[in-house]
Amino acid sequence: MRILSGITSSGECHIGNYFGAMRQHVRLQGEGEAIYFIADYHSMTVVRDAAERRRLVREVALDYLACGLDPARAILYRQSDLPEVCELTWILGSVTPMGLLERSHAYKDKVAQGLPVDHGLFAYPVLMAADILIYGSDIVPVGQDQKQHLEMARDMAQRFNHVYGVEVFRLPEPHILEGVAVVPGTDGRKMSKSYDNTIRMFWPQKQLRKAIMGIVTDSTPVESPKKTDTTLFQLWSLFATPDEREEMFERARAGGLGYGEVKKDLLARLLDTFGPMRARREELAKRPDDTEDVLADGARRARALGAPVVAAAREAAGLGPAR
Ligand code: ADP
Ligand code: TRP
């Protein structure tokens, strides 16, 4: 079984990435041939500075390794070390109807917000499909927000296979972590690197405290009963067992529980959960060459896995001389 996923290096990883994706990636690494990559081509629609792009790739690589990604058991590579995906993007894009891409939430949201959109963002799902299909991936573990992109990848694979009459691409299955749907950000919207609403697991304590104290709450007085389907309780619940949650929610409903107390407890739990990973990250950060070696080795291994699919797609489409 081949497992494939990626994270865009458009910012530093946050607890939404961790609970929605990275934790699951680390768990899955023993269960098949796991391939994870840092999507720096995808970052190009957001990050427009060369040094910053490279810095963010290093940060995300350190985050992954600190969270337990083991290069002996999983491949970790930088997307742009495999420019073949760009060729596959063109091959797939040529059989992708405009209408399919026009339905993309990511694209539609930007347009709805009146933000400028470039072709890169419009074609983003095609590049993502190429990332997935290049390995004949069976399972693609991602958060709920990426589900539509996976459906599009399946559509593109099907279309190519149909148009050229050859089963070149295998249809991937999404694998969405149950329990964690979308982690909210401090402002109540989806936590995202694109919004200023993240909580980063490896921030210094002071910065973490500031972010947590800034989580939006209503103005219910301490004595009054509290609603529990709110951002603060959703975030707190990420770090609690079902029994602890039941107990806390009971207290909230009874009244007398202050938001400040919940925030303090959230900070303590967060520091506790990520403490060992933070220590590992600090060690890894002292040896940047080692991380670069992991990525280079990952790219070599990924290329060997992807090459046959690219060759088959070229052959099916009649690109280059016949084999
Ligand atoms: P961001 O929105 O912060 O740029 P990415 O789009 O790079 O994050 O997402 C990387 C992975 O993390 C994806 O699998 C995505 O589903 C997951 N993810 C991102 N944000 C969240 C969130 N708020 N809740 C749950 N999962 C998330
Ligand atoms: N678009 C994904 C995200 O922002 C990252 C990504 C790029 C990805 N290519 C992928 C995830 C292929 C899974 C498979 O999260």
In terms of topology, how is this protein built?
Layout: E1 2-8, H1 15-28, E2 33-39, H2 50-66, E3 74-78, H3 84-93, H4 98-102, H5 105-112, H6 119-133, E4 139-142, H7 147-164, E5 173-176, H8 205-213, H9 231-237, H10 242-254, H11 259-285, H12 288-317
Helix pairs in contact: 2-11, 3-6, 3-12, 6-7, 8-11, 9-11
The chain binds adenosine-5'-diphosphate (ADP) and tryptophan.
What's the β-strand tally?
5
Number of helices: 12
Low-pLDDT sequence parts: none
CATH superfamily of the largest domain: HUPs
Q: Which sequence of strands runs across the widest sheet?
A: 1-2-3
Report how far the terminal alpha carbons are from each other. Answer: 28 Å
- Domain count: the total is 2
**Mass-distribution shape:** globular
Structural class of the secondary elements?
mainly alpha
Rg is 21 Å
Helix content: 40-55%
The proportion of residues in beta strands is 5-15%
What compounds sit in this structure? adenosine-5'-diphosphate, tryptophan
CATH topology of the largest domain: Rossmann fold
The description of the largest β-sheet is: 3 strands, parallel
* Order of secondary-structure elements: EHEHEHHHHEHEHHHHH
CATH architecture of the largest domain: 3-Layer(aba) Sandwich
Attribute tags:
323 residues; Rossmann fold; Tyrosyl-Transfer RNA Synthetase; 2 domains; 3-stranded parallel sheet; two-stranded parallel ribbon; 12 helices; 8% strand; binds adenosine-5'-diphosphate
Describe this structure in words.
By secondary structure, this protein is mostly helical. The protein has 12 helices and 5 strands. It has helices spanning 15-28, 50-66, 84-93, 98-102, 105-112, 119-133, 147-164, 205-213, 231-237, 242-254, 259-285, 288-317, and strands at residues 2-8, 33-39, 74-78, 139-142, 173-176. The strands form 2 sheets. The chain has a 3-stranded parallel sheet. α2 (50-66) packs across α11, α3 packs across α6 and α9 (231-237) crosses α11. The longest helix is centred in the last third of the chain and has 30 residues, at 288-317. The relative contact order is 0.15. The model has no long low-confidence stretch (mean pLDDT 95). Bound molecules: adenosine-5'-diphosphate (ADP) and tryptophan (TRP). Residues 7-8, 10, 16-17, 20-21, 142-143, 145-146, 182-183, 190-194 line the site of adenosine-5'-diphosphate (ADP).
